[in-house]
Design a protein that fits this description.
The protein is α+β, with helices and mostly antiparallel strands and about 130 residues long. It folds into two domains: about 5-45, no CATH class; about 50-130, Gyrase A, domain 2 (2-Layer Sandwich), CATH 3.30.1360. Helices cover about 45% and strands about 25% of the residues. The strands form two sheets. Strands 3-4-6-5 form a four-stranded antiparallel β-sheet. Strand 5 and strand 6 (about 105-110) form a beta hairpin. Helix 3 (about 50-65) packs antiparallel against helix 4. It is globular. It starts with a helix and ends with a helix.
């Protein structure tokens, strides 16, 4: 994405209405910055944890449709094209017991660490999605 206008258009195409001012504020709160070489927005590391958690909750609540568990895998369903964003947020939140995520278009496989409780990981995600 090279501009906020393009991002807003893509979000509108997916049924998410957002003003440029709101988008600008949300990108800043998430720590998104424009990469100097590619001119694309990227999520920077080392952001204020409280701000990241607050914005992550808001985005996860808006995008997560369902959370289910099977064995040591938690499956998170999102709207079309939203899984990558949610997976990135879940990885950066470093939830207890979550080893990592793999995102498709509208689904995320969350791998639970050996010895961790998969249902506890699912509960953490459900809690984020309902707050």
């Amino acid at each position: 994405m090279t501009s906020q206008q393009q991002l807003a258009e893509l979000l509108r195409a997916r049924g998410i209405e957002v003003s440029q001012a709101t988008l600008s504020r949300d990108l800043a709160e998430m720590g998104a910055v424009r990469d100097g070489q590619t001119k694309r927005y990227i999520l920077a590391r080392n952001r204020d944890p409280a701000a990241v958690l607050s914005k992550a909750r808001s985005v996860i609540k808006m995008m997560v449709k369902e959370v289910a568990r099977s064995g040591n895998i938690v499956v998170v369903k999102t709207g079309p094209g939203q899984a990558n964003t949610v997976a990135h947020l879940l990885d950066n939140l470093e939830l207890e017991g979550l080893l990592g995520t793999v995102a498709g278009d509208n689904a995320i496989l969350c791998v639970v660490a050996e010895g961790a409780d998969p249902e506890a990981v699912a509960r953490q995600i459900r809690k984020l999605a309902s707050e």
